[in-house]
């Protein structure tokens, strides 16, 4: 258990570096998303081939992997653009509302009835969001594009969680990661082509940042998190992942000189507290135990 907790903690730290690097603006958000996935895929795919993990048993699995790849890619792309248009802290907090959207989507499409703790957590989290963005913004309906992109990122990630949970039931983790990241890379490649992004000509610092994103923030981070997930309760892992907002905020204050006001801290605390309440369950397992 100690190894699992250590792996989870390190994995969260690796992910927390990501929004800070993207916020530095060394490359565009979209090209950053592509190289994050492409570099991780290039490293994992040969290993998966040697291990004999590159096998898809049915068309259903293929389309499940394809959908997971597109959803994850869309999440990263939208999140990256959101980070560059706002702050690392705000974008991370908004995308971390994904557990709320998991509950809502499960309620609407999977015939799952969340408990009272879910609705209580939702109310607390939404209150925290209002505090975080500012009461004046809410009263004037002055939500900017970056704010809505952060929300959309959380929705994409919630869809990814729901679909991937189903796909992983009959598939090896390495197989899932290899193919879903491959499809994510392909999807992001065409997205960047569509928007006219350049795939080269970056500074040395930019290439280093892209390598860090691909190796540390994607490949190493998710391998560590999956290692922990196998040995810990899924609810604990999911809840722990939300702490990346705290780490991202701390890193942003150090490397990006972002200032956290008392209002931001109170709002962020309420958002995370609300999400924590939605994950509160008794000891028996729950169908939507992510």
From TrEMBL:
- Which stretches make up the EamA domain? 7-132, 146-279
Membrane-spanning segments: 33-51, 63-81, 93-110, 117-135, 141-162, 174-195, 207-227, 239-256, 262-280
Q: Which UniProt keywords apply?
A: Membrane, Transmembrane, Transmembrane helix
Domain of life (superkingdom): Bacteria
Task: Give the GO cellular component terms, alphabetically.
Answer: membrane
Protein's UniProt name: Uncharacterized inner membrane transporter yiJE
Q: Supply the source organism for this entry.
A: Chryseobacterium taklimakanense
